[in-house]
Each structure stands twice: as structure tokens, then as C-alpha cells.
Design brief:
Strand order of the largest sheet: 2-1-4-3
CATH architecture: Single Sheet
CATH topology: Rubrerythrin, domain 2
Shape: elongated
CATH class: Mainly Beta
CATH superfamily: Ribosomal protein L33
Helix content: under 10%
Strand content: over 45%
Number of domains: 1
Largest sheet: 4 strands, antiparallel
Radius of gyration: 12 Å
Order of helices and strands: EEEE
Number of strands: 4
Structural class: mainly beta
């Protein structure tokens, strides 16, 4: 199965002592070998922030 389920976590929320938001997504193991970064909405900060893949 070439697709992985991954969890994306906000990178800016912990610096502001807020709760980080998390999103579930998938990625293709063969095409995206590094960690994924996406801009997603963080409801506790009320803005779009950078979310990175966590293990």
C-alpha cells in the first residue's frame, strides 16, 4: 500500500501557549519521502498557520 496516514500539527501554537490543532491526511510514500508541511486553519489562534507532519 503506497499511501500513509499522517498527522499534521501546528508549529506556532506552542510558542504562544495555546493548544495546537491537529489534522489527519494521507501522503504517497513513493512521491513524498520527506515530511509534509501544509498551511491549515488553527481555531485556537483564529488564523492559518504552518502544520508539519509528526511521528
Amino acid at each position: 500500500m503506497p499511501r500513509d496516514f499522517i498527522i499534521l500539527e501546528c508549529t506556532e501554537a506552542r510558542a504562544e501557549n495555546k493548544r495546537p490543532s491537529r489534522y489527519c491526511s494521507t501522503r504517497n510514500k513513493k512521491l513524498q519521502q520527506g515530511r509534509i508541511e501544509k498551511k491549515k486553519f488553527n481555531p485556537s489562534l483564529r488564523r492559518y498557520t504552518l502544520h508539519r507532519e509528526i511521528k
